[in-house]
Amino acid sequence: MVLAHGSSTSFPVATVATIGLAAVAVVVYCAAAHRRHREARGWNHWRTASFLAGMVILAVAVGPATAPGFGSHMLGHLLIGMFAPLAIVLSAPVTLLLRSGPPQVGRFVGRILRSSPAHLVTNPIVLLVANIGGLAALYFSPLFAISQRSDIVHTAIHIHFFVVGYLFAWLIAGPDPGPGRPGVRVRLVVLGVAIAGHAVIAQLLYAGAFVAVDAPADEIRAGGTLMYYWGDIAEILLALALLLTWRPDHRQTHRPIRPRRSSGISAPAPRLDGAAAAG
Fold this sequence. Notes:
Blueprint: H1 13-37, H2 45-62, H3 70-90, H4 93-100, H5 103-114, H6 116-121, H7 124-139, H8 143-149, H9 151-173, H10 184-207, H11 217-245, H12 274-278
Helix pairs in contact: 1-2, 1-4, 2-3, 3-9, 3-11, 7-9, 7-10, 8-9, 10-11
């Protein structure tokens, strides 16, 4: 639907490769999840179902277009840039990898997550610019026309939207470990800015203002409508995921206890629990 060009029966190399990688990922994830489920800690079946749903959505998004036109493109963009990333993020693939791999893998992943590039690409401002700015560049510049003529550019654009969508979903509600993430209030503000940005772009598409897409006006309006309403659904699901995965911070600030002069015995130093020590 997204990566396919030409006739509805054609399967470009990028489409075949993406579906093949998705199939391999499903096999690997399900095998690891089955092993973890047999352990005492277990593995939540809902996470496995979420991963399968994300891969199915991704396969549909990269398959041949069921109908030509800008509306079909927009639907594919929403699937590959918002719905599939959210479902995959909620499946906690990094946590499963850390629990399934040897210690060397855990140390390697930890170094990546603590690296400066990881902190940069998960910065809220960077993600907002990449998300909203990427949409604006695609629809209000010649980039869309270029992508229609070049399979490489077309594929690169949608890889960008998938990666940004995944990182944004993790930033807001991802259960996996990662670089330092802001508090819930900041995440809600970031989500609100993203919702507003998507709404503005959708309304500009519907109005045909500043649009650099070579398509009939009714198709562009249909695409803007899809972005407005389906985008809202994806963002509501993301906000719901944040509420369901949020845990209040019960850490307390421990004040040193002064020894009683009358007894002459010093009180023991307060012991930090695991949550406080980790913080």
